[in-house]
Amino acid sequence: MFPRALSDSRAFDIAQAMLDGFNRHYQLFTEANAAAKARFEAGDWHGQQRAQRERIEFYDMRVDEGAERLQREFNAGELSMDTWQQVKLHYIGLLVNHHQPELAETFFNSVTTKILHRSYFNNDFIFVRPAVSTEYIENDEPASLPTYRAYYPVRDSLRDTWVRIVNNFQLQRPFEDLDRDVDHLLSAVLTQLGDFKARANFQVQVLSSLFYRNKGAYIVGKVINGFYELPFAVPILHTPQGLLTIDAVLFGEDELQMLFSFARAYFMVNMEVPSAYVQFLRSMMPRKPRSEIYSAIGLHKQGKNLFYRDFLYHLRHSSDRFRIAPGIKGMVMLVFDLPSFPFVFKVIKDFYPPQKDTTREQIKSKYLLVKQHDRVGRMADTLEYSNVAFPRARFEEELIEELKHFCPSLIEEDGDSFVLRHLYIERRMVPLNIYLQDATREQIERAVVEYGNAIKDLVAANIFPGDMLWKNFGVTRNGKIVFYDYDEIEYLTECNFRRVPEARNEEEEMSGEVWYRVGPKDVFPETFGPFLLGNPSVREVFMKHHGDLLDAGFWQGHKERILAGHVHDVFPYEASKRFKNQRRLREAQAAAASLVQERQAPQEAPSNN
Ligand SMILES: Nc1ncnc2c1ncn2[C@@H]1O[C@H](COP(=O)(O)OP(=O)(O)OP(=O)(O)O)[C@@H](O)[C@H]1O
């Protein structure tokens, strides 16, 4: 029943205390993002990575604080349901002019669901649906930055406009050669626009904050001309000499999707109205769910909330059944999916075979490590949920049997619902072992090269995947190879890469068993071959491109570089997109052309005479 009167005077104070908790969260979140600029300018890469990692924890800390405060000051666990409804109504009132109402609603849900029983998780008490609109929110404070700036060049002033766009960010470090970079940029933009005629609305819109991640800062925006819109992102990096340079320009939905991929770390963006950023980004990547956009800009709890809403909506509009995921079953994870929905659900089993010497806590800590680490485009992001209720009737019997057998401690049957106490959700990919089965020779070649590249990217990011079997990697929609089996992951710097020692006698040599001593963190790369390279065509490609992965020296060398403080470069775009490489290519082509001319010149000379 909807309360006719807001009669409980505590309800307002509770709502206000809840909102104070959220505001504190967003203030700390904003401070961390705002500081990314100074870290980028100073080249403090370790600091940037640390801040990215620490920021992920902020939300849960503030939710815990909020729930504690409500218990302490208002004995929240004992409040009547009528009072809780009033709290929600007051809270809605407090959000009317708020700049992040959707995030504050999610925060309300996170705090209240810690206090209330599951049976109250409905729209009377929590925000199952949003109550406050995020449309047209503006920050009207005089010193505030707009969400985006619009520039109105005419054809001839386009170059000046790009210089102004870059300079408006006021980066406190000089560019190596901004004129040269803007020439590249402009020529790339003009190539994209083709032989265009500037329409009345011709403009460049640029989001006001740079997007920071690792060693890069990105300008993000779109060129608009008539009905045509060209989304772009411009990465700014440091040169080896510590000067700034524009490294490339990315255009269009596909290239932006790569930049904002679920397999990369979240950006740091200084924004007062995040929903406006999301709306802008969505206009550039209409196929990317809003949940993933929120996550990509560091608001991963909002992403998680929106994902869950999308999931419930999908369930209501589909009729297929959850099934065991195709592929080789996991030893520590039970994985299932819903064919009509492009995600998988992963539950940690209660027991594992003897070769898996691990525990639930250890596995969770590995998944957390991946969440906090730079995923370098090679590790899928996971959403972690507790107490998710599924309609039992939508489960295949075989899956229910497996869940009951492998995960009894995590299941609760509640009427028609099947509640899973803990699970991870991640993007569904085609497991690489399945992909290779039906692949053409060309596809095999591309996949094996990409697989090796994936491992090398992980290595550069200080990750040893542990179990490198094909089945632990997936192929994404655009053919990228991504790792998803995290239970054996280690920091490279904590592993000890060794060569297999020489056998001391014939007995040792002929032994089928491991006869040498192996420490818990010892890894013998030369022993990977027999597990990976049974298929001759795979072997041939692998050895041609990635034979170094079987050499302990390769791994040890990277480990030493990382220990010496080196922070790898990660490029979320092809090397051929880099202006530097394009310049080199042009120079090489010009040199080759003049060589040809020189060679031809003496032969041609006599005929001219
Ligand atoms: N994101 C995904 N997309 C598609 N299939 C997946 C995904 N994640 C897992 N799977 C399927 O589930 C299987 C088991 O998953 P996973 O490798 O995570 O479990 P595990 O128990 O850690 O495995 P292992 O026994 O190798 O340690 C995979 O081999 C694959 O077939």
UniProtKB/TrEMBL annotation:
<dbReference type="Pfam" id="PF06315">
    <property type="entry name" value="AceK_kinase"/>
</dbReference>
<dbReference type="GO" id="GO:0004674">
    <property type="term" value="F:protein serine/threonine kinase activity"/>
</dbReference>
<dbReference type="GO" id="GO:0006099">
    <property type="term" value="P:tricarboxylic acid cycle"/>
</dbReference>
<protein>
    <recommendedName>
        <fullName>Isocitrate dehydrogenase kinase/phosphatase</fullName>
        <ecNumber>2.7.11.5</ecNumber>
        <ecNumber>3.1.3.-</ecNumber>
    </recommendedName>
</protein>
<comment type="function">
    <text>Bifunctional enzyme which can phosphorylate or dephosphorylate isocitrate dehydrogenase (IDH) on a specific serine residue. This is a regulatory mechanism which enables bacteria to bypass the Krebs cycle via the glyoxylate shunt in response to the source of carbon. When bacteria are grown on glucose, IDH is fully active and unphosphorylated, but when grown on acetate or ethanol, the activity of IDH declines drastically concomitant with its phosphorylation.</text>
</comment>
<dbReference type="GO" id="GO:0006097">
    <property type="term" value="P:glyoxylate cycle"/>
</dbReference>
<keyword id="KW-0418">Kinase</keyword>
<keyword id="KW-0547">Nucleotide-binding</keyword>
<dbReference type="InterPro" id="IPR046854">
    <property type="entry name" value="AceK_regulatory"/>
</dbReference>
<dbReference type="InterPro" id="IPR010452">
    <property type="entry name" value="Isocitrate_DH_AceK"/>
</dbReference>
<comment type="similarity">
    <text>Belongs to the AceK family.</text>
</comment>
<dbReference type="GO" id="GO:0005737">
    <property type="term" value="C:cytoplasm"/>
</dbReference>
<dbReference type="GO" id="GO:0005524">
    <property type="term" value="F:ATP binding"/>
</dbReference>
<keyword id="KW-0067">ATP-binding</keyword>
<dbReference type="GO" id="GO:0006006">
    <property type="term" value="P:glucose metabolic process"/>
</dbReference>
<feature type="active site">
    <location>
        <position position="381"/>
    </location>
</feature>
<feature type="domain" description="Isocitrate dehydrogenase kinase/phosphatase (AceK) kinase">
    <location>
        <begin position="320"/>
        <end position="574"/>
    </location>
</feature>
<dbReference type="InterPro" id="IPR046855">
    <property type="entry name" value="AceK_kinase"/>
</dbReference>
<keyword id="KW-0816">Tricarboxylic acid cycle</keyword>
<feature type="binding site">
    <location>
        <position position="346"/>
    </location>
    <ligand>
        <name>ATP</name>
    </ligand>
</feature>
<dbReference type="GO" id="GO:0008772">
    <property type="term" value="F:[isocitrate dehydrogenase (NADP+)] kinase activity"/>
</dbReference>
<keyword id="KW-0963">Cytoplasm</keyword>
<keyword id="KW-0378">Hydrolase</keyword>
<keyword id="KW-0329">Glyoxylate bypass</keyword>
<feature type="domain" description="Isocitrate dehydrogenase kinase/phosphatase (AceK) regulatory">
    <location>
        <begin position="15"/>
        <end position="319"/>
    </location>
</feature>
<feature type="binding site">
    <location>
        <begin position="325"/>
        <end position="331"/>
    </location>
    <ligand>
        <name>ATP</name>
    </ligand>
</feature>
<dbReference type="GO" id="GO:0004721">
    <property type="term" value="F:phosphoprotein phosphatase activity"/>
</dbReference>
<keyword id="KW-0808">Transferase</keyword>
<keyword id="KW-0723">Serine/threonine-protein kinase</keyword>
<feature type="compositionally biased region" description="Low complexity">
    <location>
        <begin position="590"/>
        <end position="599"/>
    </location>
</feature>
<feature type="region of interest" description="Disordered">
    <location>
        <begin position="590"/>
        <end position="609"/>
    </location>
</feature>
<dbReference type="GO" id="GO:0016208">
    <property type="term" value="F:AMP binding"/>
</dbReference>
<dbReference type="Pfam" id="PF20423">
    <property type="entry name" value="AceK_regulatory"/>
</dbReference>
<keyword id="KW-0904">Protein phosphatase</keyword>
